[in-house]
Structure formats: C-alpha cells, structure tokens
Design a protein that fits this description.
The complex is a heterodimer of chains A (262) and B (272). By secondary structure, chain A is α/β, with parallel strands linked by helices. Chain A has a single domain, classed as SGNH hydrolase (Rossmann fold). Chain A contains 13 helices and five strands. Chain A has a five-stranded parallel sheet with strand order 2-1-3-4-5, with helices on both faces. In chain A, helix 7 packs parallel to helix 9 and helix 9 packs parallel to helix 11. With 272 residues, chain B is an alpha/beta fold. Chain B has two domains: 38 residues; 222 residues, Rossmann fold. In chain B, strands 2-1-3-4-5 form a five-stranded parallel sheet, with helices on both faces. The chains are: A alpha/beta (262), B alpha/beta (272). Chains A and B meet through helix 1, helix 2, helix 3, helix 7 and helix 9 of A and helix 1, helix 3, helix 7 and helix 9 of B.
Amino acid sequence: MKANLDRQKLTAVFFITCMVAVAAMCQQAAPAPTIPTTGFKGLDDYRARRIAVFTDDFGQLARYRDANAALKPPASAENRVVFFGDSITDIWHLDQYFPGKPYINRGIGGQTTPQMLVRFRQDVIDLHPKVVVILAGTNDIAGNTGPMRNEDIEANYASFAELARMHEMRVVFASVLPVHNYTDKAKDFFAQRPPARVLELNNWLKDYCAKNKIVYLDYFSAMVDDKGLLKKDLADDGLHPNDAGYKIMAPLAEAAIAKAMK
Amino acid sequence: MKPSRDFQKLEAVLGTISALLIIACTLTVLALGQDSTAPAIPTTGFPGIDEYRASRIAIYTDDFGQLARYRSENAAVGQPAANENRVIFIGDSITDYWKLADYFPGKPYINRGVDGQSTPEMLVRFRQDVIDLHPKVLVVLAGTNDVAGVTGRTRNEDIEANYASMAELARVHSIRVVFASLLPVYDYTQESKESFALRPRERILVLNRWLKDYCAKNGLVYLDYFSAVDDDKGMLRRDLSDDGLHPNTAGYKIMATLAEKAIARALETKKH
C-alpha cells in the first residue's frame, strides 16, 4: 500500500512537472510580436527597445508631464519660447547657449512628427509661449516610426502651424539639418536620410513659411559643406551637432525668434 | 518483491525525465531572460486586449495613425461638388462597421472609421482623412478605445486634448464639427465582460460632460447618442448591441436619426 501511495505521489509530481515544462515551452513558442525591419540593425534594435513607447505612450506625454505642471504661466512681459523637436533639440543645453532667456526645451530623442503632433498641445500650446521653434522631420525620413512619405511629414508640419495659429503663437520652422557619413558611426544615420529628401522638405518648409508669414530658420545653409553634407567638424556622429554646431545654430535661432516676435 | 523493483525502475525513469525537464525549463527561462531585444508589450491585465495589441504591433511601430487604410480611397474620392453637403464620419470600429449607405441612402456621407483606434491615432490621420476631403461637416465619435487603454493608459485630459486639437484643426478649415457622445457599454453577456470592465462608466460620463460643455462653449453641435441608447442601469440597452460595445442594426437605426438631426443643425450654424 505504501509503495502504491508513493507511486501515486510520484506520478502526480511527474505530471505536474510535465505540465509546467510544457507550459513554459508553449510560452516560448507563442509568436512574439515582430516589429517590421527597417533593413538597419541599429535602427531595428532601437525600435525594439522602444516598443512600450509605440504601444502605450506614442507621443511620450509622460516625458514632460511633470515638468510642464511645475512651470508657471508666463509673466506678462515674458517672451517665452518653446524649442520643439527630436534629439537635436533634446540634447541642446539651451541655458548655456541662451543664458538668462525664458527658453524651454521640449525635444525628445528619436521622435517623428506624428509623435510630436500627439504631444503638441501638452508640450507647446498649454505652456503659452509667444514663439515655438520647430526642428523636426529627420527621424521621419529615417523611418523611426515607419516609412513615411514627405507629404505625410508636411501634413504634420501644417497641423503644428495651424494649431499654433489658433492660439496666437508665432511659429519658427527650422530647416532639417544635413547629415554626414565621414565617420563609421555616421554611416547608418546618413544612409537612412537621403540628402534629396532633406532638400525637398526644406524647400517645402521655406515655401510654406513664405505663404503663411511664418519665419523660416535656415540652419542647413550655414552647416552644409561643399558636398552637400553636414560639415564634419560640426557633428561627431554625422547627425547630432556638437558644441561647434550648436554655436552656429544659436545665433541663427536668436535672430529668427527676434523676427518672429515682431 | 517484484512490484517494488518495478517501482524502483519507474522511479528512476520518472526521476530522470523530471530532472531533464527541470533543466530544460531552466534553460528556457534563462534563454528568454537573455534575449533582451525580444519586444515585450506592456500588459493591460486583460488577456483579450493584450492579444489584440500584440496583433497590431506593426501598426503601432510603422503606421500609428493607419494612414495606409484610406490613402487610395481618399485619392479616388475627389473634391466635393459646389452644392454637395459632404459629411465625414471619423471614429473607431463603431463608425467603421456602420454601413452609412444603408442608413443615409443617397447622402454624400463618407465613412472614415478605423476599428481599434484611439484619439491620438485619429489626430495623426486627421489631415489626410478629414481636412483634405473638404467636408462641410465632421461627425466625431471617439474615445471609447482610449478609455479602454488600447494604445496605453490615458487620462481623460489627454483624450480631451485630442478632441480639442481635432476641433481646432477643423475650425481652421471651416469644417463644422459634431461631437458625438461616447456610447454606454454593457456586461450582460459573457463575451462583453472584458470590454465592459475596460470602460468604467464614470469615465464615459466625465468625457461626455466635457464634450457637451466644450460644444456649448465653442458653438459646436453635441450629438447625444448616450441618452438614447442607455437603459435604467446606465448601460447600453441589451437589444441594441450583441457584444456590449458595438451597436447592432437596431442600435444604428436609433443613431442614424440622431446623427441626421445633428448634421442638419451643424449645416445651419455659420462658418467660423
């Protein structure tokens, strides 16, 4: 009898173990969600790491929610400016380049224009700036949030401008920066951003600004070399300006803001 | 003595198999843990919607607004005729599944619903699917999937921000806006339990109050489906929906009459 009981126990343990094992294997076998490939391993890895952003907070409203809440409404004489964009804005230390100015950084690394449209109200409109400086589009071309046609990017630019207009905010549209491939690090960034697409977007922006009395901020012409690429000494990775790059951009931005304030 | 020896053999065999399985499990778990690039979608706590979100991963990563859905149809629609009272219905599945041609025969009403969508997705396709088609009136029925957290947990303020952005973009283009109330949901069937649990009644009521108030303040038309389709428990009437979320023919019949009145009212309001 004892042997029988032991056998029953052992058999039970065996089956439980089997079930646990099968369950574990089934879990592994369940098709993991696959993200469409971009053809670039670095970008594919980056997109895979951002999966929770795509599924749960596409505009990344969480990023600046608390910072926005902590900001007081602008003082009556304050010429508040919001810099809105991707990593090129995000990593720009505005307090060092515009000391003492009420300039607010609302850049988010990796973002494309549809993501920015989703957070435009929270991160721009609700802060009541006099001017918004928009530097966006390079990640759209790269396909960070999927392949995009220039028309789709332009549609988002237009929506920014129209929403800003409804709130009597002046808009400065910055040109998309050129990119270089002079270093190993830069190769993929460059390959993802065909110079012709950058030029087309900049032509559209310049034209749209002229038609809608918006200030066009031409970083491109000041930073491009004779091959049509970003000057090597202005960016170490081919995409993001270094100090020398930001030093060129700051006075141009300042002049554009002054023009917009008028 | 024989049974005992058999038992010992069995014990040994089972023991070996168990040990192998334990090793296999451990290796599996380790392998899963090491594969840091395998995308993991945050869970909502509801298996049905978790699976749904996983099935939509390529949308979220590559075409968040789903501009691909109506791109070619939009190109085929063309500009409205001079006296055409074109109306666009934008929204989620409740709009998407609505056969407008059956309920509004002969009317130039265009369906631009995309099932599963929340308001940030609609904002992203708003220019392509609404503005560029130059309707006179826009009927917006949106928010229930935001409440459900289909594209992540949202606060009502975030949904309201998207309503406001849609209204402002429409206004820039002289499109009159009709904001429909969110519909109630019910949990009267087994199938409807999860979609009901994902949509707390209180949030729907708060959003509807906000919409009604926003419409009053901004001269927009508020289209109150809610009061016409809820029962004495504040739930969607059992006979108007088979799954607790999506109206059936009886539901759409009630909605169509109300929508038609709201559109007529919107056409009477002056352009901004």
